[in-house]
């Protein structure tokens, strides 16, 4: 779960809005750069705030960074680095501005340094934006687990790793039992809340290098690297029992309980990923046929 957990990116429509705002802030920064150079070339005055030691907090990008950015993306690897680059660039701009205000010609080395910093900052900010977009688009918005795109990405890696290290990787499909009844009896909002509660429970219950993805509707795929089938079956039964005892809140303040059926099997190295999933799906079908709330192994 290290890459797709709620901790790594806070998953709400807030993230999308924050990304849109980042785009706007970066557009402002490009315009600021244009105006700044124009001020130097056309001998026009610059904004007073560019002389401020805190110019990097005062511009639109700085405001995004200190607001949405810090709130939602502070744990991203490029986050701190971006602030350093942004500040250094504004510091370099101040050097040019002071010379310009004093009526002195701009030192070519100072100009080169500033432009290099400005270009690097733009490039890194774009990279940051791209990474965030990739992350946010790999996450199921309702549950915060990875979506199918993230799932295939992960399974390709795990299949390759399992083949290389000869440490088997197990995958499981978990489908909530009689979920339609929950929607019918308690409404879709409770259905959504239940999907969130169940996925949070699964995330909490797995090891940190396991991963979970929303496969569709009320079905989740769990990936257990470095695990043999016997151990996986035991762990999934434990998970199944825990799930059956989970109190799930409804929209009117009550709690309900639910069960899940599981199919489990190896992520087979000599076969396409889709075949392994299909194999596990057949075991899940058997679990449903055999009465639900059980784990069936695909042999
Ligand atoms: N609230 C909510 N319901 C969903 C979502 N995705 C799928 N569903 C519902 O999940 C239900 C799945 O129903 P079925 O496929 O008949 O399965 P089931 O009722 O769980 O029965 P079994 O799988 O046979 O135990 C349907 O009513 C879907 O509308 C979602 O994101 N939110």
Automatic annotation (TrEMBL):
Source species, domain of life: Bacteria
Membrane-crossing segments per the record: none
SUPFAM superfamilies, per the entry: Nucleotide cyclase
One Pfam short name: GGDEF
A GO biological-process term: negative regulation of bacterial-type flagellum-dependent cell motility
InterPro entries: Chemoreceptor_zinc-bind_dom (IPR025991), Diguanylate_Cyclase (IPR050469), GGDEF_dom (IPR000160), Nucleotide_cyclase (IPR029787), Rev_trsase/Diguanyl_cyclase (IPR043128)
GGDEF domain boundaries: 167-299
EC number(s) stated in the UniProt entry for this protein: 2.7.7.65
GO cellular component, as recorded: plasma membrane
Gene3D superfamilies linked: 3.30.70.270, Aspartate receptor, ligand-binding domain (1.20.120.30)
SMART domains given in the database record: GGDEF
MF (Gene Ontology): diguanylate cyclase activity
CDD domains hit by this protein: GGDEF (cd01949)
Residue runs in coiled coils: none
Group of enzyme by EC: transferase
NCBIfam families, A to Z: GGDEF, PRK09894.1
Alphabetical list of PANTHER family matching this protein: DIGUANYLATE CYCLASE DGCC-RELATED (PTHR45138:SF24), REGULATORY COMPONENTS OF SENSORY TRANSDUCTION SYSTEM (PTHR45138)
Protein name: diguanylate cyclase
Species this protein is from: Sulfuritortus calidifontis
